[in-house]
Give the backbone structure.
Amino acid sequence: MATNPTLPDNRLRLPAGPIDFATEVGDTGQDHDGYPQAGTQPRYDWMRMYLIALLSQQSSYEEPSQYREGTPWFDLNEMALKIRKNGQWVPFAQAVLIEDGYTLADFYNEYSGLGLSAEMRFDGTAAATSNTIVMPTDIAAATAGKENLQADVFINGLLIDPDHVGVSAGQVDLSGGEQVVIGDTYVVVIRNVISAQQVPYTLVSPDGTRYVVTVDNAGTLGTTAI
């Protein structure tokens, strides 16, 4: 945190006298710079300060001095929106509920802990009939040495039974008679199923069909069209 305030400083404050907005707060060139007229009576300056604080989420380099639980603050040091929660300024995601007791931050922490990027997806057109799909070089490198990998494979828009899909070094393996034929289009999404347990996940196929995907403790996927 900065030791000296740096403009803009849009924190709500309750000063004893008029405010010099150009040097103490920072001007924007917008209409509210001159509303109400500054430097005449303190109550007018306070009114403008309230307006600026509301418009900017108290954006500043220093923590706000006027707040309650639930007060938002845009931290200019990190260019990040934070909120006052349990006596601390925390990332806003910690206060966005996905379901009872489970926040957006909880979801991100679980997802990022899986060890795979959200970009572990590739597509292409089969140049030969085969029961393997070769990964692009970058994805092959990113998945090298990782265990508990599962691939969701769509061929010509249809989801292949996950029990007939496996992941090995640099490629996705198809079994149970599944294969790609010359000219087939495919989409592959690679995931790490460790610790997924019974948490449901929703997939959308290339043709727009939605599926609920569940993972059991053994890492086996099940799908249901919805």
About this structure: Residues 121-225 form one domain. Confidence is low (pLDDT under 50) at residues 195-199.
